[in-house]
Amino acid sequence: MKAAYLKAKNQFEIREVEVREPEAGEVLVGVKACGFCGHDKILAGYAGEEWQPFGHEFAGVVEKVGHGVKNVKVGDRVVVETSIFDPISDYARNGHPELDTEGPNYMTMEHTGMGFAEKTIVPAILCVPFTDLEDREACFLEPMGVAADLILTADIHLGQDVLLMGCGAIGLMALQMAKASGARNIYVAEHKANQKKIELAKQFGATDVILTDEMELTDYPFPRGGVDRVLVTTPPVTIAEAVKVANVGGIVAFLGISYGPGAMVTFDSNIVHLNKLQIRGSNAIPALYFPHCLDLVKAGIVDVKPLITHTFPLEKAPEGIMEFLTDKAHAVKAVMLNE
C-alpha cells in the first residue's frame, strides 16, 4: 500500500509499504480523510530527525477486525481517537480518567503507515463510529477534542472577555466554542499576513482582530483593561504576553508546544502572583470528548467545513503539503482525501 513519510526540513515522500494483519483487539482502517496538523508541521519543520509515517487526524472505514473486537465491525465508518485512558488505572478509578496518559495510544505504536496512508492498524478501542457527516468533517474531531479541552481548561463563564492567541484550525474551533459558552467579547491576536484566518475569525464572531505585527497586546484598549480568559494556541513563548493582559483572577490556558529552547518560557511572576492569575496547561491526552464534538458539528455549533483550505489525494501529498505550508495568506487546514 501507499503511505506518506516526512523528515525535517520539510521533506515528504510516498512509499510502498506492507501493512500487517490486525491482531487481537485491533482493526484495519481504510483511511478516507486525514488532516495535516500542527504537530505534523513541527515534525516536518525541525523535530523529525528520521523518516517517519505521520497523520493522526483521520476518519475511515473498518476493513478487517482482529480477534475479540466487539465495538466495531467491518464496514463501519469510524473516526480515531489518538489515545484513551486505562479504565483500571488509579486515576480512572478515582474519577479522573482525564489524568491517565498510559492507556492505548495510536501515536506510540509501530506503524508502516499512519493517517497519511491508504490503510492503518488501530486499536479497536480508539474507534468511534459515526454517521451523517462527510469524512472531511469527521477527521476534525481529533483537533476539535483538543479545542474542547482548551475551552474546558479555561473555564469560560457567561459575560467574560476572552483573548484567543492564534487562529489556526484549533483556535477557530475554540473561538466558536467560546462564543457558545457565553463569552461577551472574543478578541483574536494574529499576524496580518494570515488573511484567511482573520477572515474566518470575523465570520465566526470575533469582536476584533489584533494584528500583532502592528500592535503590542498591552497597547490594545480592552474595555475592562484586559481580559478574563486567554486561550494560547501560539508557541509557549507567548505566554509571557498573555499574562500581561489578563485581568485580576484571570486564567491563561495554553496548548502551544515547542521542543528544545523554544519550550522554555520566562514571564513576570509578580504579575501572576499579585493579580492572582492561573496558568493552566491543556493536554488532550487521553483524547476525550469525541461524542460531544460529533454533537457540536451536527448541531451546527461548530462549523468545520470553512476551515478546509487545501485538499489533495494521497499520491499528491508531498506537493499538496508544500503548497499548504507556503500559502501563508490562505492556509488554515490541509486535508488529504482518499476518494
Annotation keywords:
single chain; about 350 residues; seven-stranded mixed sheet; six-stranded parallel sheet; 16 strands; globular
Describe the structure.
InterPro entries: ADH-like_C, ADH-like_N, ADH_Zn_CS, ER, GroES-like_sf, NAD(P)-bd_dom_sf, Zn_alcohol_dh. Keywords: Metal-binding, Oxidoreductase, Zinc. Belongs to the zinc-containing alcohol dehydrogenase family. This is Alcohol dehydrogenase catalytic domain-containing protein. The protein is α/β, with parallel strands linked by helices and 339 residues long. The model has no long low-confidence stretch (mean pLDDT 97). 25% of the residues lie in helices and 27% in strands.
Short description:
The chain has ten helices and 16 strands. The protein is of the alpha/beta class. The relative contact order is 0.16.
SSE diagram, text form:
Layout: E1 2-7, E2 11-16, E3 26-36, H1 38-47, E4 52-53, E5 57-65, E6 77-80, H2 90-93, E7 119-123, E8 127-129, H3 135-138, H4 141-154, E9 161-165, H5 169-180, E10 185-190, H6 195-203, E11 208-211, E12 227-232, H7 239-244, E13 246-254, H8 269-274, E14 278-281, H9 290-298, E15 308-312, H10 317-326, E16 333-337
Parallel strand pairs: 9-10, 9-12, 10-11, 12-13, 13-14, 15-16
Antiparallel strand pairs: 1-2, 1-4, 3-5, 3-7, 3-16, 5-6, 6-8
Organism: Laedolimicola ammoniilytica
Domain Enoyl reductase (ER): 7-336
Keywords: Metal-binding, Oxidoreductase, Zinc
